[in-house]
């Protein structure tokens, strides 16, 4: 008897619910902090630590993810994918892995869940519009074959870091960008906005040029407007050795948003 399609059995739903639980807990912990880096990369590193702690606690209860949460890992090749596909050079913010022990075929046993994160609020510069960026450099990466995020899977997740503006105004601007770029709009759940914590918006689905299609995207937005933000300043890079030292000697200072 042939094995049922992975996405028609509870394995994927189980993975997705675990990821949603872990990242919801991690974002709540992030919102409990009062002093946070402004830049996305460094916010992601803070969130990674919060989610690892959450997953460790769940594992001690006999639940949680059995595999690590990967930070900025490259898209992984599908079984029948060419070695030099453009998407394999791209790196989603987080990837959560799971191995299906019941799979008859090894090529179907490793499954991956993709999470992409973006800042939300007032534009950081005249050319970097955060709420538009959530769509054109976030949602669209799950639709564009060259980006190839979440290729081969039925769903994924976006995280939004609210740093300024009213959440309802942000959602309106995100949906304006979504409409212009051909995506279905995102709607607020009946629970409405949860201030200084995490709001889970309604998932939305859209057709895409990747398979399977349509694709479903979950949205978790965390309100960080009560936090004090600082800029992370790195010394100028000086060749390969300087690039390595750059990671070790990062200093922080307060400043305006870049």
Describe the structure.
With 258 residues, this protein is of the alpha/beta class. Helix 3 links the parallel strand 4 and strand 5. The N terminus and C terminus are likely disordered. The chain has one domain. It is globular and about 50 Å long. It has five helices and nine strands; from the N terminus they run H-E-H-E-E-E-H-E-H-E-E-E-H-E.
Helix segment tally: 5
Helix amount: 25-40%
- β-strand percent reads 15-25%
Largest sheet data:
6 strands, mixed
What is the succession of H and E elements?
HEHEEEHEHEEEHE
Q: Mean pLDDT across all residues, rounded?
A: 88
* Number of E-type strands: 9
* Quaternary structure state of the chains depicted: single chain
Give the uncertain stretches in residue-range form.
1-7, 240-258
Domain tally: 1
Radius of gyration (Å): 19 Å
Shape: globular
Strand order within the widest sheet? Answer: 2-3-4-5-7-6
Distance between the termini: 57 Å
Structural class: alpha/beta
Summary?
With about 260 residues, the protein is α/β, with parallel strands linked by helices. Helices cover about 30% and strands about 20% of the residues. It has one domain.
Jot down its keywords:
258 residues; alpha/beta; 6-stranded mixed sheet; 3-stranded mixed sheet
List the helices and strands and how they pair.
Elements: H1 10-31, E1 35-37, H2 40-60, E2 69-71, E3 94-99, E4 110-120, H3 130-136, E5 155-162, H4 167-180, E6 198-206, E7 215-223, E8 228-233, H5 239-248, E9 251-253
Parallel strand pairs: 1-8, 4-5, 5-7
Antiparallel strand pairs: 2-3, 3-4, 6-7, 8-9
Helix pairs in contact: 1-2, 3-4
